[in-house]
Amino acid sequence: MVNTFDSSESVSDLRAARFTISAYVVVALGTLVLLAILAKVDPRQAGESAWVHAVIVAFFAALLPLRMRAATAGRVAGLRAVGLIAAALFLVNVVEALLPGTFPGWMRLEMVGIAVMMAVLILLVVRIRLRSHARDAEPAAR
Q1: Which of 17, 32, 57, 65 is surrounded by the most beta carbons within 10 Å?
Q2: Where are the membrane-spanning stretches (predicted)?
C-alpha cells in the first residue's frame, strides 16, 4: 500500500484546495463573529442551534488546514482525511439547510455556501487521487 503520492504533479489542484479551505475558514470565523453581533442586536437570529452549528463548523475550520498540510506534503492519509471531512461537511450542511424552522435564513445561505465549497473540495481531492493513480499505473502498462 502506498502511503504517499507525488504532490508536485498536482500543484494547481492542491493550491485550489488550499484556497477553498481558506475560504471555508473565513466563512466559519465570520459566522462566529456575526453570531456574536446578532446575539446582542437580534437574539432571535442567534439561537442555540445556530451556535451549535457555528462551533462545529469552526472546529472543522481548525482541523481541515492541518489535514491539508499533510496532503500538501504528499501524504495519502492527509488527502483522504480532507476528502472525508469535506464529504461529511457537505452532507451535514445540505441536510441542515433543508430542515424547516431550525436555522435563520442567513445561516441557511451560509450552509449552502459551505456545501458548495465542500463539493469543490471533494472534486479536487478525487482529481488529485485519480492523477496519482494514473501516474502509478503508467509504468505497469509499458
Answers
A1: 17
A2: 21-38, 50-66, 78-99, 105-126
Amino acid identity, position 98: L
Give residue for cell 484546495.
Answer: 17
Question: How many CA atoms are closer than 13 Å to the CA of 4, on its beta-carbon side?
Answer: 7
Residue type, 86: A
pLDDT tens, residue by residue, 47-99: 999 999 999 999 999 999 999 999 999 999 999 999 999 999 999 999 999 99
Pair 129, 78: CB distance under 8 Å: no
What distance in Å separates the CA atoms of residue 101 and residue 114, rounded to the nearest whole number?
A: 19
CA distance 88 to 122: 10
Q: What is the DSSP letter of 102?
A: T
108 vs 63: CA distance, rounded Å: 23
